[in-house]
């Protein structure tokens, strides 16, 4: 990991060039091997020298960007959060010398579910049924997102555009945690590909 040169020199990140030069000169005098017999002096002298090029007199820190400080940020995901929801951590973003760090912003994305689609606070579920069930009624059995088994009886004649709405079985509403959107059940009707003459006559007789 790259050393924190400011810490090595014992100055703050907002130190001026003059302050950096003074700190460098003071530490060079303190840790120079010819002046300091301590076993650690040589190592410390080299660390100080990295922050300042004594041959050219140029200040390496003038163009050095402060090291990234590792920090674990915790996001408490709220039930019902939608795609595009932003979570902002003030001053936890990129750092530049003498500038207040930028904010770190996380944007929520939603992973597609194999059975449900989200529409606002509602959940949409598509159920396949036969033409007979569409005409005579059926019961839709499904497992909710929270693992419950749900049976929805449908007694109406089901057309291709019909929706059965189950109140309160949709997504949680973030600003009203005790409430949920609705579950909207759509139907995909499987029509027969062919009918015999007798079947056609029977259908005509039943529906006429």
UniProtKB/TrEMBL annotation:
Domain of life, per lineage: Eukaryota
Annotated keywords: Chaperone
Classification via InterPro entries: DnaJ_C, DnaJ_domain, DnaJ_subfamily_B, HSP40/DnaJ_pept-bd, J_dom_sf
Matching SUPFAM superfamilies: Chaperone J-domain (SSF46565), HSP40/DnaJ peptide-binding domain (SSF49493)
Stored CDD domains: DnaJ, DnaJ_C
Cellular compartments per GO CC: cytosol; endoplasmic reticulum
Positions of the J domain: 4-60
Gene3D superfamilies given in the database record: DnaJ domain, Urease metallochaperone UreE, N-terminal domain
Pfam families: DnaJ, DnaJ_C
Any one GO biological process: protein folding
SMART domains in the record: DnaJ
GO molecular function: protein-folding chaperone binding; unfolded protein binding
Keyword check for Ion transport: no
UniProt protein name: J domain-containing protein
Organism encoding this protein: Triticum turgidum subsp. durum
């Amino acid at each position: 990991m790259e050393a924190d040169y400011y810490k090595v020199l014992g100055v703050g990140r907002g130190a001026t060039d003059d302050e950096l030069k003074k700190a460098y000169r003071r530490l060079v005098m303190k840790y120079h091997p010819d002046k300091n017999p301590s076993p650690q002096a040589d190592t410390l002298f080299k660390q100080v020298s990295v922050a300042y090029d004594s041959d050219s007199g140029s200040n390496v820190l003038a163009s050095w960007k402060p090291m990234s400080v590792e920090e674990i940020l915790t996001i408490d995901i709220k039930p019902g959060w939608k795609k595009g929801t932003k979570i902002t951590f003030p001053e936890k973003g990129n750092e530049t010398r003498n500038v207040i760090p930028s904010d770190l912003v996380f944007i929520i994305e939603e992973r597609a579910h194999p059975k449900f689609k989200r529409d606002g606070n509602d959940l949409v579920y598509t159920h396949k049924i036969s033409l007979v069930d569409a005409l005579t009624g059926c019961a839709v059995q499904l497992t909710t997102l929270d693992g419950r088994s749900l049976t929805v009886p449908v007694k109406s004649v089901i057309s291709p555009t019909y929706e059965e709405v189950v109140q309160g079985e949709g997504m949680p509403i973030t600003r009203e945690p005790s409430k949920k959107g609705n579950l909207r059940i759509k139907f995909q009707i499987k029509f027969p590909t062919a009918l015999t003459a007798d079947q056609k006559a029977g259908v005509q007789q039943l529906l006429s």
